[in-house]
Amino acid sequence: MNSAVLITYDQDDMVDEAIALCESADYKVKHVIKQNFLQKPKYGLSGGKIEDLKEIISTVKPDVIVFDEILKPSQNYNLASELKMEMINIKSKLVKSGKQRKLHRQARKRLGFKTISLAGYTSAGKTTLFNALTGEQQEKNDELFTTLSTTVRRVMINREIALISDTVGFISKLPAYMIEAFKSTLEELLYTDVIIFVIDASDNLDELRKKFKSCYTTLNEIGVESNKLVLALNKSELLDDDEILDIVDYLELKGSKKWIDISAVTGKNMDKLEKIIGNVFQNDISQNNDKVGAKTYGN
Q1: Mean pLDDT of the region 230-236
Q2: pLDDT for residue 263 is more than 90
Q3: Region at 234 (left for phi over 0; alpha for psi -120 to 50; beta for the rest)
Q4: What number is the average pLDDT over the span 66-86?
Q5: Local confidence band at 248 (pLDDT 50, 70, 90 cut-offs)
Q6: Using the 8-state DSSP alphabet, how is residue 176 labeled?
Q7: Structural domain boundaries enclosing 48
Q8: Last residue of a domain, one of 89, 124, 143
């Protein structure tokens, strides 16, 4: 793993998220420089900090400098020239993985498989659910952004083969300057037939609603169709039935037929989850057939 000095905003949550993103892209952060403002015209940060940064570089001897903001070409050039170091945002890593996934999607489409994607916070148990559905053991990790290269496996749904992928985990506040770069990682969700939106039902109600709204808003922003979503209230083995119904009320899910309380650990309601997925597949096939029929009749 290459070493890095990270330049980021002076907010604890943003520092944690930036470090996690670096480590997901195989950069070990050796030193963090925190600033309130990272959009100064010449370097992004103040000229006085450049001298401090030079001293840190001579001590830490990192492989790269990671700047937690989108730099203009001139700023990137100025920093690289002044510091004699390669400058990284991590954006290229996200874009590259997005291009790789595009090729994979094209291959899957040619084969004609239905596809399932997992979405939600890393702590919601996405990887455990992935393992339960596929019967495999993907490595679990509580860090953010751990699944930059999407993992795809075969799974049997209604006695037919489908493909399931574990996509990147969400964070509560995605900085505005990272939205476009992050979309390349989330775009897998636009092309999948079913999205299992995994929610940690053991969170307290306020935390649960905050995460639910954050995920749902992001999915809407990237253009995900709501009829593809299946809500899985995971870790429900830790709750009784009344507590689960309280969550359903609190998240205003009562009108939706596509939610299920499950446990990826104990296997609770996994068969029902697979049935719901199969129903979404069937509805999609029916809708496509209706569209084709309408076109043919009209001609």
Answers
A1: 95
A2: yes
A3: beta
A4: 84
A5: very high
A6: G
A7: 2-89
A8: 89
Between strands 86-88 and 151-157, the pairing is unpaired
101 and 36 in a common domain: no
Check: CB of residue 233 under 8 Å from CB of residue 125: no
Q: Are 160 and 176 in contact (CB under 8 A)?
A: no
Indicate the residue among 89, 112, 127 that finishes a domain. 89
Location of structure tokens 């980021």: 8
Q: What is the mean pLDDT of the chain?
A: 78
Cβ atoms of 250 and 228 within 8 Å: the answer is no
For residues 178 and 275, membership in a common domain is answered with yes
Say if residue 291's pLDDT is above 50.
no
All residues at 6 or more sequence positions from 247 whose CB lies less than 8 Å from its CB, including other chains: 201, 205, 208, 233, 239, 253
- Are 155 and 223 in a shared domain? yes
- Whether the per-residue pLDDT at 77 is higher than 90: the answer is no
- Per-residue pLDDT, averaged over 281-285, amounts to 75
- Asked if residue 42 belongs to a domain, the reply is yes
Same domain, 269 and 161: yes
**Smallest Cα–Cα separation from 146: which of 176, 107, 173, 118?**
118
